[in-house]
Write a structure and sequence with these properties.
With 217 residues, the chain is α/β, with parallel strands linked by helices. It has helices spanning 16-30, 37-40, 48-56, 63-81, 91-100, 113-123, 146-155, 169-177, 210-214, and strands at residues 3-6, 105-108, 131-133, 162-166, 182-185, 200-204.
Length: 217
């Protein structure tokens, strides 16, 4: 492959439980809901506004209210996750080896820039990425391919030559729709949940996986 495109949450960092916890607290404590963990967790994909609509229904909140609540949720998530913020095992070495081999890399995430900046700048890894596509940069979320196609275009690499790293079925489906193969990090979903997707090349617990390491040797 000529380029790597990374999802962020759940793929580069193992933080999805913190997102779920922050959403559950916001929905129940701030908005009067009674959502269980099991009800909230499957909704952890796409833009924040889309999460709110899926959970509460269309028309419940104004755009301004959703923007305010989205930022409130992210501040809560960051405060709780900051002491635990770390790349998945093997990823620091993987990024450095790919960088040394001059393999272009991008981030294609449904996270808002506020969260992407939190990760990249706290960990000091922004210099590895030639392109960053956030929720603010697209009109259609995953599984629509816009996020990954934008990332490939910014890297100047054909979609078929880009390898996507993802952790959720909707993200892997977005890669499929973009004409890209994918490697799945099994941080948040079971392998069985991806069986219907023909573009999956490999499943890995983290970046120490031998198959993954071979990509930069």
């Amino acid at each position: 492959m000529k380029a790597f495109i990374f999802d962020l949450n759940g793929t580069m960092i193992h933080d999805m439980d913190y997102h779920t916890r922050a959403w559950q607290a916001l929905l129940n404590e701030e908005l009067g809901g009674s959502f269980t963990w099991e009800e909230v967790k499957p909704q952890m994909y796409g833009k924040n506004q889309e999460v709110l609509v899926r959970m509460l229904g269309e028309g419940r909140l104004t755009d301004e209210e959703m923007q305010r609540l989205s930022l409130q949720k992210e501040r809560r998530y960051q405060a709780e996750y900051r002491p635990h913020l770390a790349l998945l095992p093997g990823l620091p070495e993987f990024l450095e080896k790919a960088h040394q081999r001059q393999i272009p890399m991008a981030i294609g995430s449904a996270a808002i820039p506020f969260n992407i900046d939190f990760v990249l700048d706290t960990l000091g890894i922004r210099h590895y990425f030639s392109a960053i596509v956030s929720a603010d940069d697209v009109t259609q979320s995953k599984p629509h391919p816009e996020t990954f196609l934008q990332a490939a275009a910014q890297l100047g690499v054909a979609p078929a030559n880009c390898l996507v790293f993802e952790d959720v079925p909707k993200g892997a489906e977005a890669a499929l729709n973009a004409g890209m193969p994918a490697i799945i990090l099994t941080t948040t979903h079971q392998i069985e949940e991806f069986r219907h997707l023909p573009n999956i090349r490999h499943f890995a617990a983290d970046f120490q996986d031998n198959f993954v390491q071979e990509l930069v040797r």
